[in-house]
């Protein structure tokens, strides 16, 4: 049994580091630097006549309160806490939604430009492709810069990105409702460009995500690896993006199932619509419950989730096309039912985006408040 006055310097330093590193902010080099500083200062103070306990207490006090040091690391490492990772992930989702909808809006815009300037279809298609590639490169550079430097999100970014991401799908629907059918061929060619560009991006994102997973698991075998912590957070943010894509696609797969169910003529269309809405509500509610639970418990994705979610996210959009083509080739789809079921999806997915936006703004407000308090 230890004596009440027993003091172990290394145990005291470990306890101090644990208070600072509750959110796994420190990498190996930063931990080593703090340990070396505390050991050196403690030794200097002992040479001045203080006991080991008193010397360490004074050295830790001079270095700074653990809560203040922890807040400072959170300030300079904006992706590393669970809250900040959730913010980064949701902002990436909204940013992606905005870019995708902007690409589709460009397809309609090029039809208007072609009409105004009497451009040939080939010239219009070339300009359309060049604009979209330029937009994608700019967006990728921005995301790359964010991940590389991990600087704190500016106020305008925090406000604008969720707003435009939430608003852009509705604006695109508005643009389509006023589309001039005289330029349908140009619009269809632009949509074909979109499919090619987005498919390449999806596969590129899948390769990047799996590369990050491999790096994290390789670094994770090294104790206290700062590279492992950094790559783990980046991996989580990318997997969140594929998770959103999978949720979006699976919601539309439920639509295919409801259309197939309607072919048996067992239920009225109103009952099919209600069943479809309830099934989607249960699915999305269950997903949200799991996500919120993971954030609260600070639980990371499991191994099978890291492998399956990105794969599901990239396969499910193509699976939607296959299902709809299969159903359309065998049965005559009721247009009224199809519109009603898609409306269900739009309502629920819109609500999900609103919930994510509100949560993002709430987390951002809490983080900014914490920064002001720390300052």
Write the layout of secondary structure elements.
Elements: H1 9-20, H2 28-47, H3 52-63, H4 66-76, H5 82-117, H6 121-149, H7 155-177, H8 184-219, H9 226-262, H10 269-297, H11 303-330, H12 335-374
Helix pairs in contact: 1-3, 1-4, 2-3, 5-6, 5-7, 5-8, 5-9, 5-12, 6-8, 7-12, 8-9, 8-11, 9-10, 9-11, 9-12, 10-12
The biggest beta sheet is recorded as: none
Strand content: under 5%
Runs in which pLDDT lies below 50 for 5 or more consecutive residues are: 221-226
**What number of structural domains do the residues give?**
2
The helix content is over 70%
What structural category arises from helix and sheet content? mainly alpha
- State the end-to-end distance: 44 Å
Number of H- or I-type helical stretches:
12
Let me know the number of strands.
Answer: 0
SSE string, helices as H and strands as E: HHHHHHHHHHHH
Radius of gyration, CA atoms, in whole angstroms: 27 Å
Average pLDDT value?
A: 79
Can you tell me the overall shape? elongated
Structure notes:
The protein has two domains: 9-76; 82-374, no CATH class. The longest helix has 40 residues, at 335-374. It is mainly α. Helices cover 83% and strands 0% of the residues.
Name its key features:
375 residues, mainly alpha, 2 domains, 12 helices
Q: Quick gist of this model?
A:
With 375 residues, the protein is mostly helical. Helices cover 83% and strands 0% of the residues.
